[in-house]
Amino acid sequence: MSRIVMKFGGTSVADLDRIRIVAQRVRHQIAQGDEVAVVVSAMAGATNQLIAWCQSLSPLHDAREYDAVVATGEQVTCGLLAIALQALGIEARSFLGWQVPVVTDGAHGTARIQAIDAQKMNDCLAAGQVPVMAGFQGIGPDHRVTTLGRGGSDTSAVALAAAIGADRCDIYTDVDGVYTTDPRITARAQRMDRIAYEEMLELASVGAKVLQTRSVELAMKQRVRVQVLSSFGTPDDPGPGTLLVDEDEIVEKEIVTGIAYSRDEAKVTVKRVPDRPGVAACIFGPLADAHVNVDMIVQNVSDDGTTDMTFTLGSAELPRAIASLEAARGAIGYTRLITDKDVVKISVVGVGMRSHAGVASTMFRTLADKGINIQVISTSEIKVSVLVAEEYTELAVRALHTAYGLDGA
Amino acid sequence: MSRIVMKFGGTSVADLDRIRIVAQRVRHQIAQGDEVAVVVSAMAGATNQLIAWCQSLSPLHDAREYDAVVATGEQVTCGLLAIALQALGIEARSFLGWQVPVVTDGAHGTARIQAIDAQKMNDCLAAGQVPVMAGFQGIGPDHRVTTLGRGGSDTSAVALAAAIGADRCDIYTDVDGVYTTDPRITARAQRMDRIAYEEMLELASVGAKVLQTRSVELAMKQRVRVQVLSSFGTPDDPGPGTLLVDEDEIVEKEIVTGIAYSRDEAKVTVKRVPDRPGVAACIFGPLADAHVNVDMIVQNVSDDGTTDMTFTLGSAELPRAIASLEAARGAIGYTRLITDKDVVKISVVGVGMRSHAGVASTMFRTLADKGINIQVISTSEIKVSVLVAEEYTELAVRALHTAYGLDGA
Lengths: 409, 409
Known about the structure:
Two copies of one chain form a homodimer.
Chain A: E1 3-8, H1 16-31, E2 35-40, H2 46-57, H3 63-70, H4 72-87, E3 92-95, E4 102-104, E5 113-116, H5 119-126, E6 130-134, E7 137-139, E8 145-147, H6 152-163, E9 168-173, E10 194-196, H7 197-205, H8 213-222, E11 226-230, E12 242-245, E13 258-274, H9 279-289, E14 294-299, E15 306-314, H10 318-327, H11 329-332, E16 336-349, H12 359-369, E17 376-380, E18 383-389, H13 393-403
Parallel strand pairs in A: 1-2, 1-9, 2-6, 3-6, 9-11, 10-12
Antiparallel strand pairs in A: 4-5, 7-8, 11-12, 13-15, 13-16, 14-15, 16-18, 17-18
Helix pairs in contact in A: 1-4, 6-8, 7-8, 12-13
């Protein structure tokens, strides 16, 4: 007997028929002899509707009230799923965040889980019942409802799995696993049976939005085995999916396991800043103060005592970055700002890179062969990223997918 | 300065525009120098949608899960109204049932309020904030969400008014007060400025569905001054409405203040039961066991040792009543059951009846003049009710409205 946390996302519980299928899937899991706890998201679309209402009433709404409103999405689903399970003869009961309790910090709207009290969930399991926990929500130090931010139900599920010592956390979603790249870009993308946490983190952070990044971090830290599965298979067979594991569990390490891309990028070049010690601090200090997350940074070779500084950031943060740099213009002393939103960040990822040379040069040569100009480069231990013009996205991804031998039949 | 509880029903908060108008109305009340606490229902239609989902998944759903699902309706509205108030510069915060807490018994789906802890609400008011409480919900002894049954938000509002010692509880609804009869039946119906609790109770229980009966009982018991007002006036002027007061406060008592009717009635005649002691118990015992609420009862004059027993009940309970009587046929010993759903109960109500004779005879004569046959009669201290064929509803109501001098210009 294993203890399994099953998490179902918004498309998996989008309507009553889908909720009935989820109930059947849970029944099938129990029939395997497993103990099951469930975590659910809101019905697809429900959260967006609730957010739109809050924003319409006040663009600068109180995050505490936003949380009270938005958390109802998961409250509805967990009650409905408990009813659907009972209709199949399975003893089940819903748990809201404050009932478990899922204790979070006080950052309403983007709260972080501090602790999950496992007592009631364990009691429920011990009594042969299926606890159905509302994802995405908790209770803050002010005794009010908190929410975890977009995709937070993944984190709820992983945190619950860690709290109750589950053998595995199965995340049912609208894709059937993690792919070597976006299957919409190339039909040759292949589902991976296994992926290391670190690779998943890099893929998630550069745009392969299968799991919330924070949930992968938590899974890695707490060593929770996470499996990504499709909720669109039959209730008895969701298909093989992708298992997130520790790097050590992957015997035959591929040098590159995946190609990711992110279009939500923007590039800023600060022209002709004095090339003196402290100028980088002059530029990036104000940006940090304005809560702008800078990603890649390049400083050009100095020329006549001035240099150009180029960096990338999420395109949504561009207006804030510009405002902040213009306010600091006197202190920095640049001549002008050049911004570009028509860029894409393309990354090759793989834990095998640690022990193999030549990954970056293969990337550069492949792109050069296709006539694609690289604007910015950044590397980490298991990733090489480049910024190129957005129009080359598909061409670049396909070429790299082939170059690293990832193409399927 | 007065302390006012303002309660807004589903049509008053049906969409974002209506919620904004409610916020303006609260602002206007505060501008009068009053302290205000607010109670809200779910957006019109929301509760029905949630109930339909529960029923679709399982007709015999777990009432505890039903409560968790259905209570989200008010949770959404109280958060949204708090945001709308803040957008007007009014400090406000939402309170869910479990946060106040509104302590109820454990009868999920039809829970009764046992106590409202006034501490947090009073603190909130003392801090110059407007507490916005979710109506219809509470927390049960099992630490789970409970709901109060249809119209329960009225009761939430009256209970809150009693708990915080409010000077008045204003119930904003889709009618502008309590009328002498249904204005859809006669344009001569008049809004009453005042009505005694007892009269309101009788009108409510016979079908004038302005307030939940339980809320009126509670208001009477706790001596809460309740005002029924229209939410469709301007934010600055809801119009005069109707004030519920103690009988003693009505100086000039009308003999009859209102004519009510209820079409949700059914009549059952049990034919030729043995006329012996204990036969009534044989009939009504099984009905009580089956939770059938019997209303009017008539026992015919005995004839050849047998008699006919006629009674009325809510038409929704008819199938249960028939099943129960058929099961007890051997014990009762009747020849057959006759049922009739095409009946209406018409009632004349007024506290002045206590000191005036002739009310019933005026009713009987008026109906006889119109050729309407009375099938069953029942009376209380402040009410006379008759059962007649449903087709006479409008004719009877109009004739009685005129006969008791209630017609307006």
